[in-house]
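The protein record minuted underneath.
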Amino acid sequence: VRWGRWAAAGLLTVIAVFFVLRQVAKKRAEIRVAQPVAATAADVVSAGVTNAPARRLAEKPSSTVAPAPAKASAVSAKTPPPPSPAALRAKRWLDESSNRSRDERVLLERLYQAELSGNMRIAIDSIEQLLRRPTMSDVGDALARRLGALNVDFVLSGQPTLWTAEIDLRQNDTPFLVARRHRTTVEAVRRLNNLRETHAFPAAMKKVRVLNFPNASLVVHKRTRVADLTLNGKFFKRYYVSVSADVAAANYPITAKASEGPQSRFKALGIRMSPDDESELRMFLAPGAQLTVSDL
């Protein structure tokens, strides 16, 4: 009897353990099945499967926040500016240079790249080298005109140049005193230093830029109707002018006298040019400058 009771108890224990393990296995299987259904519920609905639990899961609003659209970059990519007329002209000279020497083509390419990048120093040097070549005479006038425009812009740019210097102001200095000391003009002192007034310097200004003893000379050619300005013996700029036919070829010095200043000389000699060119020349032609009329 005792052994029978033990056997019955053992059998009941085995049955209970089997039942528990079966329930655990069933729960695990349900979890494994539920996971892929939750992940693909939307796919189930879109495919038209009429599974109510899956459809309800897909229609439930998602708690996941949709990613915000990417913000545009604060600094947009800048469109490069179109080439300047000077750069386009240099490109045309380069395109038409197949019959020129290799050195000339190299200089024209250098000039074109300098014009594109706005490097005035390299552009000036390239044109000066080209002008020294007799085979470039067919574009010599255009090169000279471009060189003059670059020279003026370069002088007024604030960069160190062959014709300018930076000096320390002395006590009680005025634009007039600085101009007289360096044999230049008050207008040149004003423009080189962006002064609003010409009778005094701002109190905080300790240094100024000046045209340093430019020794300007203007040669007016009657036949070709051009006027070439040189500073310290070096070509600076070419202007288009007209001159009275009866003016004698001679030297007409510029002095401090009102009747011998640039404006008075131009009027007396019948030398005509654009107002901008005349204003610019008055900046360079200080007392002591030379004005020459040539029959050429």
Residues 33-64 have pLDDT under 50 and may be disordered. The first strand starts at residue 164 and ends at 168. The chain is about 45% helix and 10% strand.
